[in-house]
């Protein structure tokens, strides 16, 4: 089956569309993925601006939510149609859309609800393909965190590797999946990935820059130990997994509050602030991985393009001996890994197979995820395989 996976993360800078051919092995134990490539489409400025203005802690209206749901759906639809045309020769059979997370209702260690916008009807209408969307709510309804859902795909990729392998994604929020000795697993959001770094860069440059390109600002700065200590003392980092978070917690206002808490000691500015926030991300990721005994870490997401961040992460993990590698070594490009992961989850849903890993999300059991929007043709669901695939094999 030829599937397009759509993803836009908490940095909400662009929609990524990755296409793949997916098929089950003869015994059903292995899902084979042949990558066809990825295209990326930045959000139009008016959509990105409206989205930024509506996200917590800002107030919004139902009218704004309705407009965003439509406009984001149309952007996702355009990305899917482009991927079908450029990567699939017009033969895509399914689209899997993560949508744009706008609120993740986490409170007292539990997730009570989650909201992703991007009406799938626009995607189905534009492409003619059936669309699987709304992956997270079913896991939440089953008592899970609704994230990180890519943990199931991580497990399928990492099982059988020696030692204690881990997958790390550094988007706006960073998350890890670790395969424990004996086959158990744990996954959770470690804390801010790029979220606070990006917020600081936007404020420092008056919005001229949205992120620390090539980590140059952080590389030129000096870490402020006082601010780093205040930020690292956040109670979130002491929550037991599974735990998830988002920009509902780690946003520009959060950063301003912690800067103000320095009182008469002053606050770092410019490059020093960016350096401090970059080390915060590296340190909180390392402190999450170290107790789990990770021996190798496969990194993906926008954060891998920041050499200063990756250098700090390697230094923080150095004493543990964990090697940091790119997800390319598993066959999936760092920038496209999450979009490919949702293509896999969409395939599983269409075939009536669970898409969550209960050990990782905390759900009460395996669940088939998402909702299905029919395409132009009559909807005919494929027969459910006799067994659930245990491994994911990526071909060149």
Automatic annotation (TrEMBL):
Which organism does this sequence originate in? Streptomyces globosus
Q: Which UniProt keywords apply?
A: ATP-binding, Carbohydrate metabolism, Kinase, Nucleotide-binding, Transferase
Q: Which family does it belong to?
A: Belongs to the anhydro-N-acetylmuramic acid kinase family.
Entry binding sites for ATP: 9-16
Q: Which GO biological-process labels does this protein carry?
A: 1,6-anhydro-N-acetyl-beta-muramic acid catabolic process; amino sugar metabolic process; peptidoglycan turnover
Pathway(s) per entry: Cell wall biogenesis; peptidoglycan recycling; Amino-sugar metabolism; 1,6-anhydro-N-acetylmuramate degradation
Identify the stretch annotated as signal peptide in this record: none
Biological function: Catalyzes the specific phosphorylation of 1,6-anhydro-N-acetylmuramic acid (anhMurNAc) with the simultaneous cleavage of the 1,6-anhydro ring, generating MurNAc-6-P. Is required for the utilization of anhMurNAc either imported from the medium or derived from its own cell wall murein, and thus plays a role in cell wall recycling.
Protein's name according to its UniProt entry: Anhydro-N-acetylmuramic acid kinase
Q: From what superkingdom does this record's organism come?
A: Bacteria
User: Which terms in the Gene Ontology molecular function aspect does this entry carry?
Assistant: ATP binding; kinase activity; phosphotransferase activity, alcohol group as acceptor
Q: Which reaction does it catalyse?
A: 1,6-anhydro-N-acetyl-beta-muramate + ATP + H2O = N-acetyl-D-muramate 6-phosphate + ADP + H(+)
| Pfam families in alphabetical order | AnmK
NCBIfam families, alphabetically?
Answer: PRK09585.2-6
The EC category is transferase
């Amino acid at each position: 089956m030829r599937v397009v996976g759509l993803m836009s993360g908490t940095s909400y800078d662009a929609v990524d569309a990755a296409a793949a051919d997916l098929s089950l092995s003869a015994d059903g134990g292995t899902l084979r993925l042949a990558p066809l490539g990825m295209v990326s489409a930045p959000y139009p400025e008016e959509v990105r601006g409206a989205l930024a203005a509506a996200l917590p802690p800002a107030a919004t209206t139902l009218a704004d939510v309705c407009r965003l749901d439509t406009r984001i759906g149309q952007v996702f639809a355009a990305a899917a149609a482009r991927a079908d045309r450029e990567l699939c020769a017009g033969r895509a059979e399914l689209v899997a859309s993560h949508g744009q997370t706008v609120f993740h209702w986490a409170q007292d260690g539990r997730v009570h609800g989650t909201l992703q916008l991007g009406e799938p009807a626009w995607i189905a209408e534009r492409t003619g393909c059936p669309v699987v969307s709304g992956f997270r709510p079913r896991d939440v309804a089953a008592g899970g965190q609704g994230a990180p859902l890519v943990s199931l795909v991580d497990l399928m990729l990492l099982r059988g590797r020696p030692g204690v392998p881990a997958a790390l994604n550094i988007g706006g929020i960073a998350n890890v999946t670790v395969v424990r000795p004996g086959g158990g697993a744990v996954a959770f959001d470690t804390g801010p990935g790029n979220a606070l770094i990006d917020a600081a860069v936007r404020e420092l440059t008056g919005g001229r820059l949205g992120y620390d390109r090539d980590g140059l600002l952080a590389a030129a700065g000096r870490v402020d130990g006082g601010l780093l200590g205040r930020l690292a003392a956040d109670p979130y980092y002491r929550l037991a997994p599974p735990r998830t978070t988002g920009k509902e917690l780690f946003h520009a206002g959060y950063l301003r509050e912690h800067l103000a808490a320095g009182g008469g000691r002053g606050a770092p500015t410019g490059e020093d602030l960016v350096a401090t926030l970059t080390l915060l991300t590296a340190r909180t990721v390392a402190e999450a991985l170290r107790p789990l005994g990770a021996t190798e870490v496969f990194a993906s997401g926008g954060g891998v393009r920041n050499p200063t961040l990756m250098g700090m992460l390697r230094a923080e993990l150095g004493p543990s001996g964990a090697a940091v590698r790119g997800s390319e070594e598993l066959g999936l490009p760092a920038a496209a890994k999450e979009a490919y992961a949702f293509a896999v989850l969409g395939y599983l849903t269409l075939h009536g197979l669970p898409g969550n890993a209960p050990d990782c999300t905390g759900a009460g059991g395996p669940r088939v995820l998402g909702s299905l929007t029919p395409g132009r043709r009559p909807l005919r669901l494929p027969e459910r395989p006799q067994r659930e695939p245990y491994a994911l094999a990526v071909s060149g």
